[in-house]
Every structure is written in C-alpha cells, then in structure tokens.
From TrEMBL:
Domain of life per record: Bacteria
Every Histidine kinase domain range: 20-242
Organism: Sphingomonas psychrolutea
Range of the intact protein held here: 259 to 518 of 654
The protein, known as: histidine kinase
Residues of the signal peptide: none
Length: 260
C-alpha cells in the first residue's frame, strides 16, 4: 500500500515535470547563459561588472544543481539504509551546516531530555537531508528572523495513535519555527510534489514530499502543526532501534555486527 502511494506520487511528479520543473530549469539556464554572455562582452571594458555577471551565472547554476539533486533524491530507487543512529548527535553534527543555512539572525536551539538514549533505525544521509529540508523551510517562513528549535524525545505509541505507525517505541524529532505558519488549506497541500508557494527558482515543492516519502519508507510518520502568524512544527516519528539481544555463546558474539 505504501509503495503504491509512492508510485502514485511519482506518477504525479512525472506528470507535472514538463510543466513545472522544465520551466524553472529553463529560467535558471537563462540566468546562467545571460550572465556569461554579458560577462563576455564586458570582460575587457569593465572587469568588475563582468565579475558580477559571472557571480550571477554561478548562482543560477547552483540553483539548477540543487534542483537536479532534489529530483534525483526524489526518484531514487535504492533501498534505504537501516542503521542505528543517535538522533541528538546527528542534529548536533549538523550545527555548522544549520548555522550557515539559517544565518546570524535566526537562533538555533537543540533540545533533548538528558536521559534520552534511544537510537533510531534510519538512513543517516536521508535523515540529515530531511532535517536540512525542514530547516530551509523554517528559514524561509521566518524571513530571516526568529527561532528554530529542534527537539528529540522518545515516545511509546499505541496502535493508531499516529497515522500509520504500529504500536511501539519511536523517537519524535521535531523542527519548530516561529515563522508565518500555514492555513488549514495550505496544510492540506504541502505534501504534494511540486506544490510550492515560493517564487520560481526558489522553491521546487519537492522538500516536504521527499521528507514524507523517506519517513514513510522508514516505517515512520510525519505530523504538521501550524498556526498562521505563530509558526510551524514538523514532527518526524522514527522507529526506535533496538539491538538484538546480546549473544551468549562465543560463535554468535563474533558473528554479531561490530557497528556498536
Ligand atoms: P518548497 O520549500 O520548495 O516550496 P516544500 O515541499 O518543502 O517545497 O514546501 C511546500 C510549501 O509548504 C512551501 O512552499 C510553503 O508554502 C509551505 N511550507 C513548508 N514548510 C513551511 C514552514 N515551516 N512554514 C510555513 N510554510 C511552510
């Protein structure tokens, strides 16, 4: 059922590709080509102006590269890795990246209960990507000013408590911002591939649908809470990693994976 959902999402994505993405991509290429053309003309008469045109071209190329990266991540067929990850360590490991992404005027706070030692079963690269996607959305919603709070906490869910999650232990990783928030109408649409309210070239509308696909594939859930004018909290419920029972005889002990 889940793979069907992903299939439907992909089909929709492909259907909208020609209209939306090709158009955005073309705009970015126009910026690159235009910038290079102007730079070529001015390189002798006005090197400083030429440099500015080259910088513009580089920015356009970087946007196009980011777009194709997102498209590739979205259509990836490889299986997710399923490895034990310490969620707090993962977020702290992203501190530099988050600071650079959010800028000086947005405060970043990471919270975790002191006794929180639960690991999650996930794919490190994909999880980092998801957190980064959420942080970029938070930044855009805060327009340069506000507070981003990332919290991880272990929760035990009953069957049916959170969407498709089975009963069991999860780590709830939430990314909260003090940004513009979303109306109920908007909230209903944000997981659609290519749905964006951002100007062409800035938003692809793939961020949240990618996060959604990744978390569902990892047997987790995504929950959104948002109040217009106050902010948004996105919570990822990820299954807790529980190590196999410790091996008792020597043979089993030496055959156990040495990852921890
Ligand atoms: P993109 O960021 O490229 O637009 P997403 O799928 O990540 O694509 O987000 C879709 C839309 O959801 C955004 O354009 C924005 O309108 C809304 N959105 C996402 N995250 C937030 C947030 N934290 N606060 C307010 N609006 C948000």
């Amino acid at each position: 059922q889940e793979s069907k959902l992903r299939q439907v999402q992909k089909m929709e994505a492909v259907g909208q590709l020609t209209g939306g993405i090709a158009h955005d991509f073309n705009n970015m290429l126009a910026v690159v080509l235009g910038g290079l053309e102007l730079a070529k003309r001015q390189v002798e008469a006005d090197p400083a102006a030429a440099q500015r045109h080259i910088d513009n071209a580089t920015e356009g190329a970087n946007r196009a590269a980011a777009l194709t990266r997102q498209l590739l991540a979205f259509s990836r067929e490889e299986a997710l890795r399923s490895e034990p990850i310490e969620p707090v360590a993962l977020v702290l490991g992203m501190s530099d990246l988050l600071d650079r992404t959010l800028g000086d005027t947005i405060e970043v706070d990471v919270h975790a209960p002191e006794d929180d030692s639960w690991l999650v079963r996930s794919d490190q690269h994909q999880l980092e990507n998801a957190v980064l996607n959420l942080a970029v959305n938070a930044r855009d919603a805060m327009e340069g000013r506000g507070k981003l709070t990332i919290t991880t906490v272990g929760v035990t869910l009953a069957e049916g408590a959170v969407g498709t999650c089975q009963a069991g232990d999860y780590v709830a990783l939430s990314v909260a911002d003090t940004g513009c928030g979303m109306s109920p109408d908007l909230l209903e649409r944000v997981f659609e591939p290519f749905f964006t309210t951002k100007p062409a070239g800035k938003g692809t509308g793939l961020g949240l649908s990618q996060v959604f696909a990744f978390v569902r594939q990892a047997d987790g859930e995504v929950r959104l809470k948002s109040v217009v004018g106050e902010g948004t909290t996105v919570t990822l419920y990820l299954p807790r990693y529980v190590a196999d029972a410790p091996a008792t005889d020597e043979k089993a002990a030496s055959a156990a994976p040495a990852s921890f």
